[in-house]
Design goal:
mainly alpha; 2 domains; 8 helices; Arc Repressor Mutant, subunit A; about 0% strand; globular
Length: about 210
């Protein structure tokens, strides 16, 4: 089924999940929801892993996107027992959050430096590596991204982290491509200000 069909199907399951009351079992609905969205979740996992955490695909972990997807599905199975996303946008936002958490946990446990600079491609120089995990500058970048306003953080994640096109991001967020571009530009401006001391000496690139 095409992307529009996936979006409609996921929304139906979310509506059904919202109607589960009291002690009624939500497990079957959650499993159907995750099963219907697994292809898109797989794409999100692969995009974030290979674009922003390529070191995790190398020894000693040799992480594959299928393994990441399995871990993320387990996280979502637990999270959806308490959380009730009302829209497709909220659901994939929740999924994106758990993908990032899983990858960050893996990076820290392996005492590896997460390649945060790829999050802000062309915006800031590479942070110095640290033998104790994510570098100080890397943590600052992660915090700066997390502290973006919700709409700007969402678009930055979809475009720069997950590698979606403006059209794909517009479909997920139910706004126009022009709005996506405005939010992306604003996210880059805000990150530039909050990480000003990490900027290259010759300034930001002409094209964000």
């Amino acid at each position: 089924m095409d992307e529009a069909g996936t979006t409609a199907a996921v929304q139906r399951y979310l509506d059904e999940l919202a109607g589960v009351q009291g002690d009624s079992p939500a497990g079957p609905v959650i499993r159907e929801l995750l099963g219907r969205s697994v292809n898109r979740l797989s794409l999100l996992c692969a995009a974030l892993l290979h674009r922003s955490y390529p070191r995790l695909t190398q020894p000693p972990l040799n992480l594959r996107s299928e393994e990441l997807l399995s871990a993320v599905v387990e996280r979502l199975l637990k999270a959806l027992r308490k959380t009730r996303p009302e829209s497709v946008r909220q659901f994939f936002g929740l999924a994106n959050q758990h993908i990032r958490w899983e990858l960050n946990d893996l990076a820290q446990r392996l005492d590896e430096k997460a390649p945060v600079t790829e999050f802000i491609e062309g915006l800031v120089p590479a942070p110095m590596s640290s033998a104790s995990g994510i570098s100080f500058d890397g943590r600052r970048m992660l915090e700066a991204i997390e502290n973006l306003p919700e709409e700007e953080r969402e678009v930055f994640s979809l475009i720069r982290i997950q590698g979606m096109t403006h059209v794909e991001a517009a479909e997920i967020t139910s706004v126009s491509s022009k709005t996506i571009q405005r939010r992306l530009n604003r996210s880059l401006i805000l990150l530039s200000k909050s990480l000003a001391d990490l900027r290259p000496s010759d300034g930001l690139p002409d094209e964000l």
